[in-house]
Amino acid sequence: MRRVVGNPTPTARTPRFCLGGSGAQHLIREKNWIRDLLRLVRANDRGQVSSYAVADQLAKLNHHVHLGITDKSVGPRCIVCWRNKKEGIHKGGGAQQFYTGVTREVCTSLHDSRKARVPTISHGIDVCAALDAIGMVTPEMFEAIKALGPGADRREIENILEIDKANAKVARLPREPDEDLR
Helix, strand, or coil here: 64? Predict the structure, then answer.
């Protein structure tokens, strides 16, 4: 793998892709997937295929590794995330897609929080679990806080946001991950 550190020279090239995790060794041994993936990524960069076509191919690779590794350290489910360059044909943005095997999972609602968010751990805290425990600030809550005005008492705001309930839920979150990293 090539690496570029610091200020790259004009001839330095960034890596075309990076492999990580327990499935990397499996993919390194079987290099027949590289050319097809790079061809698909270049076609996406030209606007000829969708980002989801690339995501589908990456999910197919994950599923292939899942089936090929005997220790089962790679599961059948995966998340493919992408970011587009602002200067590119897609003008920035990006998305994510969840898969079971090679099948796209459907998120029926943005409030279906476990399917709509990429799992995130920050400073040892499961951010998604904390957000689930706290709950979302609804438009009605926001309007009620706004109606209190600039001199609102902190306790009035905490009552609207149900801070005591949220703190109790957060206190019940596990401090250590279990075998499924939950």
Answer: helix
d(CA 97, CA 108): 13
Among 106, 139, 164, identify where a domain stops.
106
d(CA 149, CA 43): 53
pTM for the model: 0.62
- Assess contact for 81 and 94: CB atoms under 8 A: yes
What DSSP letter does each residue of 90-135 carry, written as one string?
Answer: T-S-EEEEEEETTEEPP---TT-HHHHS---EETTEEHHHHHHHH-
- Residue 83: domain span: 16-106
Residue 7, both tokens: 């200020």
Same domain, 87 and 134: no
**Residues 69, 22: contact at Cβ < 8 Å?**
yes
Per-residue pLDDT of the chain (182 residues), as tens digits, is 445 566 767 776 777 778 888 888 888 888 889 999 999 999 998 999 999 999 999 999 999 999 999 888 888 988 888 888 888 787 888 888 889 999 998 764 444 545 566 777 776 667 777 777 666 666 777 777 778 888 778 788 777 777 777 778 777 777 666 655 55
User: Which runs of consecutive H residues, i.e. helices, occur in 20-112?
Assistant: 24-29, 34-45, 51-68
